[in-house]
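Recap from last week: sequence in, structure out.
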Amino acid sequence: MNLGKKYKQLFEGKIRSNDAALLTESNLLDDIAYSLKTNSVLKQLGIEPKDIEKEKDDYTLRLRFYPDPKDLEKGPEKLKKEYETALKKELLKLVGKDYMSILQVNVYDNQPDYAGIEMSITDISKTDTNLRVKVLKHYETSADAIDFEGTINGKPWTASKEYMRDGAIFTSVYDTPTQDTIEEDDPEYDAIITAIDDYMEKKNLAK
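Predicted structure tokens:
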């Protein structure tokens, strides 16, 4: 399947853009996942169809490679770089350079071992445009802490920013309805932190 040709035909006659408004007409990551599951090069690198899963955020694919044990002798950094390069090369052949610009490949920090090398592919056109964050109010709960409330795409969140004596700053973010922590590797976390920083600057809250 040549996805580059497919998407070029899909957007024929439309303004060329990386805008999510156009890309939501397609299922880019679904098509990528389907194609990678049958990719012979990646299979040789130790990936199986079950190792490619779409995250619940709907714009990230999670992948896990299981290297040949003898390749582990190359060392973790060299091995991760080789696998990242191989994945990007296959993606480029699959989607073409136009759509490669909206795909971000991440290699996770876990050390390559018999548990595998974990990587992800994110459609950044959706993370950049679809996360609408508002900071609604703040409370200075103590001299060293500020709490915030807001929404992201209409969903409520809360956050707590704590200032440590050694100068470190810790910000915890929670999904209000479930009280689940929004982790630092979640695109929502970065969007909320950026909105909080902008809000603090406007309100002159920076400590």
